[in-house]
Amino acid sequence: MTSTAWMGTRGAGPAGGPAHLRLLPAVAPVDVEAAADAVRALLVALGQDVTCEHLLDTPRRVAAAYAELLTPEPLVLTTFPNDDRYDELVLVRDVPFRSLCEHHLLPFHGVAHIGYLPDQRIVGLSKLARVVEHFARGLQVQERLTRQVANCLQHNLHAKGVAVVLEAEHLCMSLRGVRATGTTTTTSALLGLHRDHPETRAEFFALAGLRR
Ligand SMILES: [Zn+2]
User: Fold this and answer.
1) What span, in angstroms and rounded, lies between the C-alpha atoms of 22 and 31?
2) CA 45 to centroid of ligand 1, rounded, Å
3) What is the pLDDT of residue 150?
4) Helix, strand or coil for residue 132?
5) What is the pLDDT, as a whole number, of residue 121?
6) d(Cα 25, Cα 7) in Å, to the nearest integer?
7) How many Å lie between the centroid of ligand 1 and the Cα of residue 101?
8) Residue 86 confidence (pLDDT)
9) Which of 41, 84, 97, 206 is most buried (CB neighbours < 10 A)?
10) Do residues 24 and 8 lie in contact, with contact meaning Cβ atoms separated by under 8 Å?
């Protein structure tokens, strides 16, 4: 499970100026060598010949790939005062993401739609994508990932409303088991006015191009 420590300066800086929050992952660092040994043992258990030339370097490559997928980049979330009193929906659509399902260690991937109704603070648009990327790096379930993105934005922006929808294909569903290729799983996390106010919610789903 990915957990994140809330660290660093928060809400500091000159009055009314930008505020920075640095999020650092609280997960233990990956022991790549031990992981490579474990992958080698897994291959042997799966009946593979790890002495064959093609597989010789596979344990190291697999370990490095997992290390990358499970290590979040530190996230610096910079917010700014909403000097222009912008009070309409801010929406970023179709942010691609990929993560690892914690039940099968297989990828799930898709797009995120992220919206918020600003109050006192606004945030750089690219940061909305970075929040998704940050929480996607780890063993996840789509429901938790959706909620973590929404909670992180609400925690830092104190927006009037936050809405996050994730649409993803899970390889554990399409490659194995039911082999339901092409199915999409949709999850949503709605906070504030996006939860309590039907018109605000409807506007988000309409602008995001989602049937709801
Ligand atoms: Zn799975």
Assistant:
1) 24
2) 21
3) 97
4) helix
5) 94
6) 9
7) 5
8) 94
9) 97
10) yes
Rounded Cα gap, residues 124 and 65, in angstroms: 30
Report the catalytic residues: 101-104, 142, 170, 172
Domains in the chain, CATH or no CATH each: 32-69 (no CATH), 81-207 (3.30.1130.10)
Q: pLDDT tens digits, residue range 39-95?
A: 999 999 999 999 999 999 999 999 999 999 999 988 888 899 999 999 999 999 999
Place of tokens 């957990």: 3
Tell me the C-alpha to C-alpha distance, in Å, between residue 64 and each of 15, 34, 35, 69, 123: 44, 11, 9, 9, 33
Regions of the chain with pLDDT less than 70: 1-16, 24-26, 212
What is the rounded distance in angstroms from the CA atom of residue 18 to the CA atom of residue 149?
A: 21
pTM of the complete model: 0.87
Q: Order the strands of the 121-123 sheet from edge to edge.
A: 4-7, 19-25, 75-81, 121-123
Q: Output the CA 72–ligand 1 centroid distance in Å.
A: 20
Q: What is the DSSP letter of 118?
A: -
